[in-house]
Amino acid sequence: MRYCAKRTDVLLYLVLLLSLGTSFVFAQETEHFGVDGDNIKVIGIIAHIGDGHSSSNALTWGYLEPQAPVNGVHIYRWDLIDAKYKQLILSGRKLQLTISPRNLWAIQGDAHVKSQDPNTGKPISAIVRIRPECINDWKNFITELLKRYSVPYLQIDSEPENTWMSVDGFLEAVCSAQSAAHKIDPSIKILVSGFNVGNFFAMPVSEQNRFLTNRTIQHKINFIKDLLAKGNGCFDILSIHLNRDYKSIDSTVAWFKKQMEENGYAKPMWCDDFSSAPFLRRKNLKKEDLAAYQSAQASLLVKKLVVAFAAGIDRIYVSSDSDWESYFMPEWRSMGLVDRHGAPKPAYYTYKLIVSKLNAFTKAEKVQDCIFKFTFNGREPVFVAWSDDVSKMIDFTQFISSATVKVTHIITTTNKKTDRLAGKVSTQKIIITHQPVIIETI
Would the pLDDT of 106 be above 60? Predict the structure, then answer.
């Protein structure tokens, strides 16, 4: 998807790491945190976050097998991705891989219905199904993919409600991939499928009804509902996209949970494509706005993380590892935790801080407006708090009984790379502003 480095680039990068005396294997697995992106030029920097998981998107079956098999002989272009995925795995990070079944020779499309290529923005035909005579080719492809790369989590396509016409056709692709994957390793988890409803369910019902008069919106919502009604046996984890502000997260997660509950089951919910910064509508970020934007990114990232975890999301892959300045959607170009030169942004240091503070939490809950409690086994709870209106002083004795607490501020400038400990603060007099703080028992 991003920065498809040549093999020589990887070797040079490894030599550079070794010459600096840097250990390449940093990652330790945690349950809740990850980074969306597969830029191997920055994988060493990203691994220092300590999250342990990477999400890689935008691979298609057609990219890796562009020609139909001849006399049963398949030719796969593993050379196109070997360097990247072997280095991602070598880094010690566990990989969630998203693969699309789109393949010109194997897919039955509908030329009358256009969707959008998620990488280029160009119009493409909507997918109806994998042709029946090609289902075994799809299964064979999944088999060979998983034999070659250690992938514990496999997601089939991303936002299929935008590119598929038929739920049954899509589920056939998912179930076939699950069957092939479990023959390789029954522990491989299958995900569907990065569903994206924006802030639709945060709207008033009257506004939702107005949008539902649009046939495209109708199709998206009905596609997701139908898939979750029929697809229980074909997947292990429900993946959604939360790429708006944090105020729409509760209603969005609740709607997806309700769809599963109404069909008699529950699944863990993960999130990739988790936007870490406010959306930009212009082509590029102006230099004079950079500091304010990066500060806003660090703040929004924390708010979205804690709200999503409290809503019931189990794992979040933050978007994205690095800036992607050539992407056709300008609002996504500056989402990186590091810039295009590999320099960490304030959001990088803030995310690293959050992972260190909240790693291995067992429960996340909202205890008051803009105050969230994270519970752990074997240590005291940690709180994250901010104010959505004016700055104010709050009495925290209803949550923590000790006379003083440790308050840690997030990092909002590149000059603040470590914990900014406010010292011993009275539990009765904690100042809360629009910037989140972390509150702990001393």
Answer: yes
- Residue 324 — pLDDT band, cuts 50, 70, 90? confident
Report which residue type is found at 280.
Answer: L
Closest C-alpha to 229, from 165, 186, 171: 171
Distance separating alpha carbons of residues 279 and 245, to the nearest angstrom? 9
**Residue 358 within a domain:** no
Query: Residue 397 has which token pair?
Result: 């004795």
- Indicate if 263 and 386 belong to the same structural domain: no
Identify the helix (H) or strand (E) that includes residue 292: helix 290-311
Provide the domain count of the chain. 2
Q: Out of 240, 275, 310, pick the residue that ends a domain.
A: 275
Q: Are 154 and 146 in contact (CB under 8 A)?
A: yes
What residues are paired with 126 via a beta bridge?
Answer: 110
Query: Considering all CA atoms of the chain, what is the largest pairwise distance in Å, rounded to the nearest integer?
Result: 77
Q: State the Cα–Cα distance between residues 91 and 349, nearest whole angstrom.
A: 20
pLDDT reported for residue 121: 72
Q: CA–CA separation, 367 vs 399, rounded Å?
A: 9
CATH number at residue 256: 3.20.20.80
Write down the pLDDT at residue 125: 83
**405 and 265 both lie in a single domain:** no
State the CB neighbour count (10 A cutoff) for residue 64.
19
Q: Whole domain around residue 419: which residue ranges?
A: 374-441
| Residue 57 phi, psi dihedral angles, 5° rounding | -120, 175
Task: Decide if 410 contacts 385 (C-beta within 8 A).
Answer: no
Distances (CA, A) of 275 to 26, 34, 160, 203: 25, 13, 19, 20
Give the separation between CA 393 and CA 213, rounded to whole angstroms: 46
Tokens of 437: 């703080």
CB-based contact 170:161 (threshold 8 Å): no
